[in-house]
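--- STAGE predict ---
source: upstream dedup step, 1 unique chain passed
mode: sequence only
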Amino acid sequence: MKYPVEIRSKDHCAIITIDGPFSVDSYMTAFSGMVAHPDWMPLFDLIVIISTRSDFNDTNLAKLLVLRDAMRSVNPQHRSGANPRTAIVCTNELKRVIADLWLALLDTDWPIALRIFITLDEALAWLADPADGMGP
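--- STAGE serialize ---
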């Protein structure tokens, strides 16, 4: 499954939308496409939208740990802002549990601030606030 990627230069961020069945390979392909995009800048933040059509039925702890380890290896190469942030947007309460689990799996030394939001506008407001760059 190919996840859409959008670069929003005016908002200093990129958006990856998880749409359809979740797979680590699909996410990493989207991430690779994002950082290879000519408008991508390493100081940009990231928004991950968990769409209403996303499917986490085959997602388990092992799959999330693989994603965590993959992101730990690629983030330092491609996200070099002073306070890099990732906003996760999810309107569905049940799917938001996956995002909560993701946050719980991250070590205290995770170098990127993460927050979960219900709307894209909330996520964009957080990313636009430079004083709020250190996470919860």
